[in-house]
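Pipeline run #58 for the internal structure catalog. This entry was flagged by the ingest filter as a single-chain record with no existing model, so it goes straight to prediction. Upstream metadata was stripped on purpose; only the residue string is passed forward. Reviewer on rotation: M.T. Logging verbosity set to normal.
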Amino acid sequence: MIASHSRHTLRKVRGYYLINGVAGGIFGPYLSLLFIHNGFNSTKIGVILSVATLMGILAQPVWGQIVDRFQMTRSALLVGSLIPALLVAFYNSTWFYMVLFIGVTSSLFSVAQTPIADAYAVRTAREAQTSYSTVRIFGSFGYAVGAYTAGLFLAHISVVFLWLPRAIIGVTTALIALTLPRPTTAIEFKRSALTGMQHFLANRRFLLFLVGGFLLSATLTSYDTYFALAFHDIGGPFDWTGIAFMIASLSNIPSMLIASKLIVRLGREKTLLLAALAFCTRFAVMAWVKIPLVDVFIQVLHGASFGFFYIAAVDYVAYISPSDLQATGQSIFGMVCGGIAVMVGNLFNGILLHAGGPSLMYGVGVLAAGIAACCFFVLIVLNHRKNRQILQELH
């Protein structure tokens, strides 16, 4: 009976990831184009996105603690989908401070979605005796559909009308969130907010993992936020932009399934290292091979870079987080890698793109990914030493 209930819930969670992915893909990659259309340069774009992200960072651990303490997963996912959908039309404003206000308000609610949905999905997948990757791939597929559809849309219709499909799909996501059931088993929350945070911040390996994740996530904003601008700088057409985003997102589907198998065979740390090396290769090509067709097809490495990283990272956080701090653990990961890293990445990549074009922006990304690879290599060494020490104690 429990397994049947879990499989039914799993279908709903996959539907949530799918439609939420479409919402992200249809608007997020093209937001910078809308800002440019409204007269903002790349530096102002970086400021808008960075300040909005900063506010989201402050809200993220609060959301995690609220959800863990009061079991409010469904409510958090509902408002996280609905509020940004209702505000998206105001991004068409040409007034800088209005756009900044909308970005901040949307961020305060949308930051709850990813870490809380991931914690819920990991738990649901385990109850249904499957892997988290079988859920997350639906988000990637949805993102691919949204990004490709938006690319076709923009080839014929102005970017100022892109808010309408984004709003409709966002409301649909909120309606799906309403159908999600509460967890089948209750978990007693035994810690204060401060104690919950200290549990993670006292773990030096977790902190090293966050450093590596921060560097990769900051690097990724050069693609997520600025690829459309950088691609057009080297002569890439609008409809090819959608194809590039579609290839990147679709590459996540097999890569995320492969990542789950790699984690079992190689371990989480080695999978993270492979992801960092894939980031280095991908951004090196984008930095120094300025051919639009190559820029499109190199996005096939998005799966081996982001896909490997994200599955291994979420699994790593779920593994080290106590049962009563699952949402908090994912929220800290989201705060650092989806919040602080995105804020810093948006700000500095905007400056780098403005100062030196795609070559400088992506070149710095190669360096950052290389340092991240070093962090994960150290984690591998530390894990090997720990395992060897345990074996010695057993003997």
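catalog note: Confidence is low (pLDDT under 50) at residues 186-192.
catalog note: The two ends are 43 Å apart (CA to CA).
status: ready for reviewer M.T.
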